[in-house]
Amino acid sequence: MSQKKQTRERQAHRELQPDVLESAAAAVRGALKKAAREQSTTSWARLKQQLGSALPHMTLADRVQLLTLVDQTTPADQAPLSSLVAAGDPGMTASYRKVALALDLDLPAADDDLRDVLEADVQQIHHHWRNEKAQRCDGAAPDSRITETAPLDLSEARSSFVDSRGGRPCGGRWGVVAPRHWNGSSSTLA
Q1: Is 107 in contact with 186 (CB distance < 8 Å)?
Q2: What SS3 class is residue 182?
Q3: How confident is the model at residue 182 (pLDDT cuts 50, 70, 90)?
Q4: Which of 101, 69, 97 has the alpha carbon at shortest distance from 83?
């Protein structure tokens, strides 16, 4: 085996040190908040381009761990910021499933249903950060405008998910609609 191939294999299996991951997670969290304020999604390639050396080369396991760290600080009433990467980078869907598992979030098994959930989560993130941006522009205290803001209705985006106990839309963890507790089917809850 050539020296270059051995080096690549070692790099592919290495995992980053916790302090490096935490530093990179802080940088990615900032980049995802920026994307949210800009009402956009992003991709792993765009994050690498945007963050440069602040985002070292990572294995898939490192990426999952990093995105898990990013969303460990996301309040429970908000959608995970990592959904902006999963929605903007189809290659990150499998990694996003692992992030959700690490955060004790259940997701639908079918990819089409997951895309619907991601779309609704992105809408909720954009809504939250649009209001956050408006609060900063108005100079208002962070909580003062929240009561004045009408809640975001994501029922249409999640209408394909039906609660087996009452027909309510489900799929959200963040108080917008019913919690995510899937029984393995893409259309009913446990």
Answers
A1: no
A2: strand
A3: very low
A4: 97
Per-residue confidence at 16, pLDDT binned at 50, 70, 90? confident
Domain membership of residue 20 as a residue range: 3-148
Domain assignment present for residue 105? The answer is yes
Residue 111 CA from chain centroid, whole number: 15
Q: How many domains does the chain have?
A: 1
153 in a structural domain: no
Q: Which residues does residue 182 pair with via DSSP β-bridges, in sequence order?
A: 189
Task: Name beta bridge partners: 169.
Answer: 162
Classify residue 176: in a domain, yes or no. no
> How many Å apart are CA 72 and CA 163, to the nearest integer?
27
Nearest to 120 by CA among 189, 184, 47, 177: 177
Residue 75 to residue 186: CA distance in whole angstroms: 26
Whether 154 maps to a domain, the answer reads no
Per-residue pLDDT of 128-147, as tens digits, reads 988 876 665 555 544 433 33
Tokens for 92, please give them.
């990150």
For 80-92, what is each residue's pLDDT tens digit?
A: 999 999 999 988 9
Q: Name residues whose C-beta falls within 8 Å of residue 128's C-beta, 6 or more positions apart in sequence.
A: 36, 78, 79
